[in-house]
Amino acid sequence: PSPERWSENAFDFEGRTVKGWELGASGYTAVWAMANTREALWDAMKRKETYGTTGPRMTVRFFGGYDFVAADANSRELGALGYQKGVPMGGDLKAAPAGKAPTFLLAAAKDPMSGNLDRIQVVKGWVDKAGKTHEKIYDVAWSDTPKRKPGTNGKLPPVGNTVDVKNATWRNSIGATELITVWKDPAFDPTLRAFYYARVIEIPTPRWTAFDQVRFNIKMGPEVPMTLQERAFTSPIWYSPS
């Protein structure tokens, strides 16, 4: 850390110079293991039951199957229910039963020391019959503070912004501490290979550049972003038609 690190050349790559302010901080990897042992952690990573975050310690659950129903979001035993009725993040869904589409149980709890939650998204990717890849993002759960709903274009309005850049702080007066939902793929084709992963997004909070401005009593250029929305993203759940 130094008053100059934001403006220093971090590195040169293929003719492009990357400034210090363009770099983000490191994140974390979370592992859903049966025990806090080397063997259990290794087994969890091998089965891909893991998720990453950009820094906060959010708790994220993501299960897929064919039998989850809306009422399952009211359970306080999400782990047991998820393993009973489906597969966890990193798992594989077998060919769909006739007339059924995948359903997903998603839950996220905020890091007590970080921002509230804005929304949970499901990112779906698939390969069509011509071999071309596609991707679509679905907003599946969101905070009701403030009240909002998707517009006619299907997009959810922004959650708002409480960041005080001058003091590098924010208020958790918007967003949610916990989000839980069950979501069903509305455009499922049982003949196509697909993947699904969950993405959890926080409300805006100060970026490291805002903290450095306060810490070193400096002023950065107008091109430097002062806020960001931290996030978590899970290992995918894969669907194969055979």
List the SSEs and their pairings.
Layout lengths: L8 E5 L2 E4 L8 E4 L6 H9 L3 E4 L5 E7 L12 H8 E3 L3 E2 L9 E7 L7 E11 L5 E10 L35 E7 L9 E9 L2 E2 L1 H9 L10 E2 L2 E4 L2 E3 L3
Parallel strand pairs: 7-16
Antiparallel strand pairs: 1-2, 3-4, 4-15, 5-6, 5-8, 8-11, 9-10, 9-12, 12-15, 12-16, 13-14
- Quote the distance from N terminus to C terminus: 53 Å
Largest sheet: 8 strands, mixed
Low-confidence stretches: none
Based on CA inertia axes, which overall geometry fits? globular
| DSSP E strands, number | 16
Radius of gyration (Å): 20 Å
Please bin the fraction of helical residues. Answer: 10-25%
**What's the mean pLDDT score?**
96
Quickly give the structural class.
mainly beta
List SSEs in N-to-C order. EEEHEEHEEEEEEEEHEEE
Q: Bin the strand percentage.
A: 25-35%
The number of helical segments is 3
Q: Which key features would you list for this structure?
A:
globular; 242 residues; single chain; four-stranded antiparallel β-sheet; mainly beta; eight-stranded mixed β-sheet; 3 helices
Question: Could you please describe the fold and organization of this structure?
Answer:
The chain is mainly β and 242 residues long. The protein has three helices and 16 strands. The protein has helices at 38-46, 78-85, 208-216; strands at residues 9-13, 16-19, 28-31, 50-53, 59-65, 86-88, 92-93, 103-109, 117-127, 133-142, 178-184, 194-202, 205-206, 227-228, 231-234, 237-239. The strands form four sheets. Strands 3, 4, 7, 9, 10, 12, 15 and 16 form an eight-stranded mixed sheet that branches. The longest helix has 9 residues, at 38-46. The chain is globular. The model has no long low-confidence stretch (mean pLDDT 96).
